[in-house]
Amino acid sequence: MSQRDELVAWVHTVLRDAEVAMHSGDVAPRRAVWSRNEPVTVLGALRNVSGQAELDELFAHLAERFSDCASYEFESLEAEVLGDTAYTVGFEHISASVNGLPSIYTLRATQISGVRTASGRSPTDTAARRRTEDCRAGGRSTSRGHGSSGGGGCDSGATRTGMFAVVGLWELDPETRQAQTAAREHIVAGVAHLPGLVKGYWSDSSDQTRSRAFIVFDGHAAAESFASSVRRNAENQARSGVRNISLDVLEVRATT
């Protein structure tokens, strides 16, 4: 087996299993494939970190955010080993819950790492550098994974740029107000950490029988992903006495 074949096999087995575990709340397998040597850096969609201590803290935080990974697929576009450097380019297609909210999204992932040996045990020395930019619901982003660095941003051919608002109207059952308050607190906390969030507003009518939400995202893909997760959550909403009347994704044309 060539070094390139070893690399591809590693990505589709060891790394895949680590990513599935992490998106189900278990960060240990992912941490195991990361280098224990300095320097190690994450340039991430959530935040940037540098050094082993900050890396451990970030991975623990990610494990708290993610749960219930339903599927993970790495769509490989290119892979190569050149001397002591290996890289892969592809798309990660992920379905998991983020802060309790079901989400489906795609990342464009560029992975760059150093080759450890040709023994066949491991094709690479897990990485020192990592960059992640997240474009939700089929958007494209670049570089994440097995210690990566490099470039890009969202693929302009696959995403609509600008700000987009998710605008919703719900009918509230006054008999379940306490459950609605608890549910809203949970939702607001989850939305606060969604990639691409600009600002969110929730309001109730004076008689508290109707509620409106106006949540702004940077990019159409992020807004559509959130709207899709809200639509899939209708059963939980009903248990809290909430019925959706309308939900739209609208482009923000002007601000003051």
Topology:
Layout (H helix, E strand, L loop, with lengths): L2 H20 L5 H6 L7 E3 L4 E3 L1 H14 E17 L2 E14 L2 E14 L14 E3 L3 E2 L26 E10 L4 H15 L5 E8 L5 E9 L1 H13 L1 H6 L2 E10 L5
Question: What report would you give on this structure?
Answer:
The chain is an alpha+beta fold. The chain folds into two domains: 3-136, Nuclear Transport Factor 2, Chain: A (Roll), CATH 3.10.450.50; 163-251, Alpha-Beta Plaits (2-Layer Sandwich), CATH 3.30.70.100. Helices cover 29% and strands 36% of the residues. It has six helices and eleven strands. The strands form three sheets. The chain has a four-stranded antiparallel β-sheet. It has a four-stranded antiparallel β-sheet with strand order 9-10-8-11. A hairpin with a 4-residue loop joins strand 1 and strand 2 (48-50). The longest helix has 20 residues, at 3-22. It is elongated, with a radius of gyration of 20 Å. The model is unreliable at 117-159 (pLDDT under 50).
Salient structural properties:
11 strands; single chain; Nuclear Transport Factor 2, Chain: A; 256 residues; 6 helices; 36% strand; alpha+beta; 4-stranded antiparallel beta sheet; elongated; 2 domains; Alpha-Beta Plaits
The side-by-side strand order for the widest beta sheet comes to: 3-4-5-7
SSE sequence, one letter per element: HHEEHEEEEEEHEEHHE
Main β-sheet: number of strands, strand sense, barrel status? Answer: 4 strands, antiparallel
- What structural category characterises the helix and strand content? alpha+beta
Helical stretch tally: 6
> If classified by CATH, what would the architecture of the largest domain be?
Roll
CATH topology of the largest domain: Nuclear Transport Factor 2, Chain: A
Q: Approximately how much helix is present in the residues?
A: 25-40%
Q: Which residues form runs of ≥5 with pLDDT under 50?
A: 117-159
* Inertia-based shape: elongated
pLDDT averaged residue by residue: 76
Got a strand count? 11
> What proportion of the residues form beta strands (DSSP E)?
35-45%
The tally of structural domains comes to 2
CATH class of the largest domain: Alpha Beta
Give Rg in angstroms.
20 Å
The N- to C-terminal Cα distance equals: 61 Å
